[in-house]
Write a structure and sequence with these properties.
By secondary structure, this protein is an alpha+beta fold. The protein is 28% helix and 26% strand. It has a five-stranded mixed β-sheet with strand order 1-2-3-4-5. The protein is globular and about 40 Å long. It starts with a strand and ends in a 14-residue tail after the last helix. The structure holds coenzyme A (COA). The site of coenzyme A has 21 residues, from strand 4, helix 3 and helix 4.
């Protein structure tokens, strides 16, 4: 199987393909996928979107907001279930780093992924704070 990992413009992605990756990865349970307008805005306005495609089919996405200088906030990363644990998540994060090499990556982990990030080199920050809307 060969994958194609590349940066894409979020606004150019087919929203249904994106929603399918959120759904099939499991991340859809933690994101407002029923609110398609909101999801469309999330994908359109993220300024650093990296995708993984297999034979053209979208199977993975990393959606970030970056200043490309200091920090990249990785908002969502999702890999379709049938492609998980084959290195795609790590490759999406590597490609995200390459787009903004000076920037550190910051994220909030979903419960199912708390063991994933330390496994691929992230360190835990003990002072993360959230102000909900
Ligand atoms: C979490 C996720 C993005 C990881 O992507 P992936 O392509 O499956 O992971 P990779 O293949 O890059 O895994 C790299 C390594 O981490 C390990 N790993 C993968 N998922 C893991 C998990 N949930 N917990 C612990 N380790 C994990 C792999 O076994 C692999 O180990 P190895 O290098 O020793 O062989 C993907 O499983 C996913 O989409 N999960 C559901 C959505 C989700 O929770 N997203 C995170 C939101 S914060």
């Amino acid at each position: 199987m060969t994958w194609d990992i590349k940066r894409e413009n979020g606004a150019d992605l087919d929203l249904n393909d994106v929603l399918e990756v959120y759904r099939s990865s499991g991340l859809g349970e933690r994101r407002p996928i029923a609110d398609t307008e909101r999801m469309a805005a999330m994908v359109r306005t993220a300024n650093l979107v990296v995708t993984c495609r297999v034979d053209g089919e979208l199977v993975g996405i990393a959606r970030s907001v970056s200043d490309f200088s200091y920090v990249t906030y990785l908002s969502d990363i999702a890999v379709a279930r049938e492609h998980q644990r084959s290195g795609i998540g790590r490759a999406l994060i590597d490609a995200t780093r390459k787009e903004a090499p000076q920037a550190k990556i910051v994220l909030l982990s979903a419960p199912a992924a708390t063991d994933y990030y330390p496994h691929i080199g992230f360190t835990q920050h003990h002072s993360a704070w959230v102000l909900n809307p």
